[in-house]
Amino acid sequence: MADKSKVGTQYPPIVWEVERGKIKEMVRAIGDDNPIFQDKQAAIAEGYQDSPASPTFLTVPAMWSAGLASIVMDLNINVAMVLHGEEEYEYYQEIYPGDIITGSTKVLDIEEKTTRSGSKMDLVTTEIIYQNQRGEKVARAKTVIVERK
Amino acid sequence: MAHEIYFEEIDVGYDMPTLVKGPIQKLQHVMYAGASGDFNPLHVDDDFAKAVGMPDGVIAHGMLIMGFVGQAITAWVPKKNLKKFGVRFAGMTKPGNTITVSGKVIEKNQDNGLNLITCEVIAQDENGDVKVSGSFQAALPSKVQKS
Known about the structure:
Chain A is an alpha+beta fold. Helices cover 21% and strands 35% of the residues of chain A. Chain B has helices spanning 26-36, 46-51, 62-76, and strands spanning 15-21, 82-89, 99-111, 114-124, 130-139. Chain B is an alpha+beta fold and 147 residues long.
């Protein structure tokens, strides 16, 4: 089960350069044809500085940095039993191509729950607050990972 | 594409435009794995998925379905107005599922100079099974000039 003594732990920061191509690749994978995410001029016409990152883009730095995998190991979580329970974003500013965003994962809570059917699971809540290269807070990502037992 | 919508135009109970996605193909799982960096074989390798207890093989990334919900939201409310977006992953999505995203305004309030709407959102398959449920908050422009 998840190691409860790790609540409050903060991990080394993720540093991620946001590429225009990755913003496009994400919306193409989703099948989101909103032109603001792929066409800089369309985005400017709608009041953006450039093509903004889409609402769920922040999964990219979290997954590609292998941050999540190392945290799962550090917390002694059984990867085969992991499910994604919840994901929540708060947006403070747009993220644009060329931005370098930085954020470190913090373990907010580890809680054991019993489902109605009687099986037990641990809920691990983590938070990453991202800043850009100007030190401005851009977003907060809160994730709940479920470890079935 | 999202056109400007105003705080005064949107009342509690307003239904956001629905978005229908799919039927989902395994190819989309592969595209999403590559784009997001989530290479868990549960999403792309049928033999692996069956070995860990998925009788029909691979399941979609939960974040892909959250991505559909994000698409539905930002097709209606401009991305720049979106302040908060959160979901709970309620069920597994399989290849062949068609996902419908819908939502409704549940609250309107003014806070700290912002005109906020809160909407609940839900993604369901063709049988009505819930895959993702959650909510989002957006700050909308007002038609009324501030003094």
